[in-house]
Amino acid sequence: METLVDKDAVEGNLRLMANCFGVVHGGVGVLLVYATSLFSERCGSMGNGFFFAMTLPGSLLLAVPLLSLLGRKGCLLYSFCSYVVYAILFCVARAMQHGDQEHERCDQAGPVLLCIGSSLAGLAAGVMWTGQGSYFAYAAKLLSTGSDDEAHRQQATSWLAGVFAVRYLGWELSLKLFVSLVQYFGQVNLSIIALIAMATLATVVFAACDNLPKEVQKDPPGQMLGKLRSALALWPDATIWLLSPTNLAFGFGSAYMNGYFNSEIAAKIVGVDTIGALASVTVVTAAMASMGYSFLAKRGKALPLALGSLAGTHRHSNFRWMKGSSMKSQPCGQTRILLLAFGWKPGRDEHVGMARQSATHVKDEPNRTQQVLLFQAFAAESCAEGAHESWDSKYGKRVRASAETVAVPLVVPSAV
């Protein structure tokens, strides 16, 4: 006989997890945004590069074993603690800065500490989202306990997704505005210390909270190896590799926004203290766009992806205008920066979100080959976006033109 579950307790537990997750992840997200402004562009970009580079082995190699070894809550706690360590090392690295920031070398003690912290946090990032996904899925399963109705299960999942998203985006928005406000008054170090304190408090609170009902804290060794083998068995799936260029495009775009754009354009025109406010604009636009994308996705995946590409085209027009020009001489420089902040997040999130959906559900499609080719075309176009943004050469134009030529005949039949 199935044991009854206190659904209010499950929902309260998820709310607490979402709040703690939002504080920790949002705080580190702010530091990643400011890294190239508080350190030299080269050193800050290198630190962020280590973060994103280590996310790959974290998600591929560490996530499944740690999830089986530590459990859902333990997996998240490991990630939270690693993020707190990164924030502390970020602060220490700032304190060790000497001389002119523009001529800061990456082999100095401060940037080396930053890269070490970034590597630790990157590994944890790969584990964090896997742990969060498992935690969320288990909570949704508990809420639908006793019901065999698939619609009821989907309703429970959708409700919890909204609960998590509101808190996650709310904290991300609030922290970016908070740091921007504190730095406006010249208290840069105080803003970093405040982020460390909040992330530490959130980690302690989450560690002290109750586990989800009936949660197994540790899998038996045989079951753990079975899960690892199941994860490795997905690697040969062509769908995953065909979608991977989308992640490359995301990497190119994030590197440009958090690196060159923040340090060389935004900081010099609107000031370092407003970078957090600009980043918060992207959060708001992403939240607003997600509602429209969800409605359009009911007609199929092609139309939302096409709109995501349109947002990408908008980004390119701004990128091309900003490169190689004296921004201070442009009377509409601040407007252009704001438009870029509005366009970056919706386009990026739509490509990434739809890619995740396709990787999850493409096997259930009646015509799997057509779906794979459709998303491969958009992935190629996304990768070409990254090449276009980074190379700024005739080769980037040719790559993108070729990808779009391939994409159009695949997308148009699927969109109608």
From TrEMBL:
ATP-binding as UniProt keyword: no
SUPFAM superfamilies per the UniProt record, alphabetical: MFS general substrate transporter
The keyword Metal-binding appears for this protein: no
Coiled coil: none
Source species, domain of life: Eukaryota
Keywords assigned: Membrane, Transmembrane, Transmembrane helix
TM ranges: 16-37, 49-70, 76-96, 108-129, 184-209, 230-255, 275-296
Protein name: Uncharacterized protein
Protein species of origin: Effrenium voratum
